[in-house]
TrEMBL record:
Cellular compartments annotated: Cell inner membrane; Cell membrane
Signal peptide: none
Keyword Oxidoreductase included in the entry's annotation: no
Cited PANTHER family: GENERAL SECRETION PATHWAY PROTEIN, PROTEIN TRANSPORT PROTEIN HOFC HOMOLOG
Protein name per its UniProtKB record: Type II secretion system F family protein
Superkingdom classification of source: Bacteria
């Protein structure tokens, strides 16, 4: 026997609509509502206190991008299976192991249940759901393709995680090796060399010139290492405060782009983020000016962000996107030309997607090249530093053995 269900939905204009339908089960009600072009919020048995709903997992303050991507993919699957927004969110709250994340998701569920749209509920948690996320969800709600939009978001976030991991792996090795070199150097100069110095003084042996130079450096290091350590900590604090300012961030990002190999990597990474994000937003119907403004905050480079801002100002005046981008050398000629072709053919989003794919491959190639160069270089540096100190320490031993042999 059919059961009467009370429902809450949003129409294509985002307006909250309530009503009732008769069906055998909740899934059939949801299916009918979706066929009508409506987005189901909740479906309950009429005059029943038990609510048949599910929930979307949202992000917590300390939620990783990977967790957000998993949440988006699971949420999309649930919506595509006919579950309502609130029911999906409730289920995902129970599935997440991150308690803070689960709490945010639960608050999103409560806001949706109280009448807010999903995008409005997510917008209340900007630290977990950035503007890119909220804007795409809003576009998905308007176009009635929320499940497909969430799948695209999951893919976009997964690519960001992969790109970030590649860049970090490329920089971790040289930084860790250089840190190891400095630690070994400090220990040998401050601890090991003074021990050998006292031993040679007790033997009354004459020190060769290389060993004398090493001892002098050691004497200086004993005094300077604590001072340098303190200055380094203060300098790091001041540097971070400076980089946090607009002027400092612009200067630092400009410097990074001028570095021989790392600069090319930073540039290609920023262009990958720019092209990929803008392509995704435009493909989901986000207006160009809003899409450029959102993209500006995702490139993680102040120089590229300023160029995007200039492009947005030009677009607001009716200028082509390529005209503004061409004035900034940070965008390669090929990128500008491909976007220009997209503007002429009306397929800017497709051309941007191709640019993003090309530069993803370029980033990977640059990282492989950087790693292949730095690995042997770091080994040579570490071996040279340690080997030179050891040779200088043991040079007097040859004179001692010679003197003992002659006696």
């Amino acid at each position: 026997m059919p059961t009467t269900f009370a429902y809450k939905v949003r129409d294509t204009s985002g307006k909250l609509v309530t009503g009732q339908l008769e069906a055998d089960n909740t899934a059939l009600v949801v299916s009918k509502l979706r066929e009508m072009g409506l987005t189901p919020i909740s479906v309950d048995k009429a005059n029943s206190g038990f609510k048949r709903e599910i929930t979307i997992p949202g992000l917590g303050n300390r939620v990783k991008l990977k967790e957000v991507a998993v949440f988006s993919r699971q949420f999309a699957t649930m919506i595509d299976s006919g579950l309502t927004l609130t029911r999906s969110l409730a289920i995902l709250v129970g599935q997440t192991t991150n308690k803070h994340f689960a709490g945010v998701i639960d608050r999103v569920r409560a806001d949706v249940e109280s009448g807010l749209s999903l995008s409005q509920a997510l917008d209340r948690h900007p630290k977990q759901f950035p503007r890119l996320y909220v804007s795409m969800v809003r576009a998905g709600e308007t176009g009635g393709s929320l499940d497909q939009t969430l799948l695209q978001l999951a893919t976009t976030l997964e690519k960001q995680v992969e790109l970030r991991g590649k860049v970090r792996s490329a920089m971790t090795y040289p930084v860790s090796v250089m840190a190891l070199v400095l630690v070994i150097l400090a220990i040998m100069l401050v601890v090991i060399v003074p021990i050998f110095k006292k031993m040679y003084e007790s033997l009354g042996s004459h020190l060769p010139v290389p060993t004398q130079v090493l001892v002098s450096i050691s004497n200086l290091a004993v005094v300077l290492v604590p001072v340098l350590l303190g200055v380094g900590i203060v300098g790091l604090f001041v540097f971070r405060r400076w980089v946090a300012t607009d002027r400092g961030r612009l200067a630092w990002d400009s410097f990074k782009l001028r570095l021989p190999i790392a600069g090319a990597l930073a540039r290609k990474t920023a262009i990958t983020r720019f092209a990929g994000t803008l392509s995704t937003l435009m493909r989901n119907g986000v207006p160009l000016l809003e899409a450029l403004d959102i993209t500006r905050g995702t490139v993680n480079n102040a120089v590229v962000a300023r160029a995007i801002e200039a492009a947005a100002e030009g677009a607001q005046r009716g200028e082509p996107l390529t005209q503004a981008l061409a004035q900034h050398p940070v965008f390669p000629y090929m990128v500008v030309q491909m976007i220009g072709v997209g503007e002429e053919t009306g397929a800017v989003d497709d051309m941007l997607a191709k640019v993003a794919q090309f530069y993803e491959q370029e980033v990977e190639a640059t990282i492989n090249s950087l790693t292949s160069i730095l690995e042997p270089l770091m080994v040579v540096v570490l071996g040279s530093v340690v080997g030179s100190i050891v040779i200088c320490l043991y040079l007097p031993m040859f004179d001692i053995y010679k003197a003992v042999g002659n006696s």
